[in-house]
Write the structure tokens for this entry.
Amino acid sequence: MPVKRFDKTPMPTQVAGMRAHNFLEVNEGYTEDHARFEAERCLRCQDPICVTGCPVGVPIPQFIHAVALGDMQGASRLLRSANPLASVCGRVCAQENQCEARCSLAGRFNPVAIGHLERFVADWERTQTQEAKPQITRTEKVAIIGSGPAGLVCAGELARLGYSVTIYEALHAPGGVLRYGIPEFRLPKDILDWEISLLTDLGVKIECNVIIGRTLSLDQLTTKMGYSAVFIGTGAGLPQFLGIPGENLVGVYSANEYLTRVNLMRGYSADADTPVAHGESVAIVGAGNTAMDAVRTAMRMGASKAMVIYRRSETEMSAREEEYHHAKEEGVEFHWLTNPLEIIDDGNGRVSGLRCQRMVLGEPDKSGRARPVAIPDSEFVIPVDNVVLAIGTTPNPMLTRTTAGLSTTPSGCIVADERTGSTSRSLVFAGGDAVSGAATVILAAGAGKRAASAIHETLNPG
């Protein structure tokens, strides 16, 4: 169907029936003609409130105008000046709830596809020769704990300001949730590796297999290793559980474990020596972005039936519209208003089913969403081989429990100033999911960027 002048230019995708069985990227990207056509939709407002919806402050109208003119070099320079992870954010950020939600076209027409254009420009940049060189001009050293989006962005901003920066990562490769939590079909590993290489080209050092709180303490970084400041971006990797019978059975995973296993063991690769095996029928409990990642991964790993179980309705789910749309196209089943009560044992310690109860929506709860209320005598069993729990995560307490004087909330989040990231410890800053609890990549990136600015102002006042 021809695209009307004010319609958003659709993103080409793999055919649903094919992509549900491979880990190749679903969205295939704009051509230059697509990008310039879409960029021409921008009204170039005098008061561009779309920018206020971007946590890292991308100069949106300016980079889009450069795309419309065919000046990809200029667009890339503008985009990269504000966002060190442009090709990542262009793929995984919920632009529809942030910058695009504030687009002046959004009220009457579809908003400009800011995220798709960001991805296009960043992908164009990958085709160009990179000549970044380290520009370490300052004597102060800064340590970054964690190499997820908050840590990477903080490191990149500080490196551009001339600081010597070292990232300490607990796992064997950098990226945090970007590498281990987001599936290959949404964020290919080579894209992430390229973004990280831009940071190392700037002089950022990355030390993997170092657990701060075990291998080294935070105090050692500041007292013995000479770091002038520390940024904590350790994320929220501790999974939550339902507290129902059967959660200890073989075949039950947290979504965090499930996605990490697939990514860490290269289950997405046809030639992997250590694929992740599971049964024919997989149930994912939850309806956020992580649930969509898990259920779509289950299909690609060979499940003949993959389903989402959610105690509220479709209206209350928190997943991105695009991911939900893609999941439906790929054949995922959705069981709304369904609450798990028990994971059933097959008699040998393995999962054989999920006992559930039908729900109806009542009055709003503290979150503002309608509270699910059980329907009496409505229990039933869904036969399944595996259950994946995608109901949220909290920060891992290892670092905070081994660091004296670092204040945390009752839920284990580090207490930090929203604007600067400063914590109860002098010259220790924090941001991202370690502070906010599980949130989005771009919000973590914004926190890392603000913290970098605060670190610079603290170390070099005036």
About this structure: The chain has a mean pLDDT of 94.
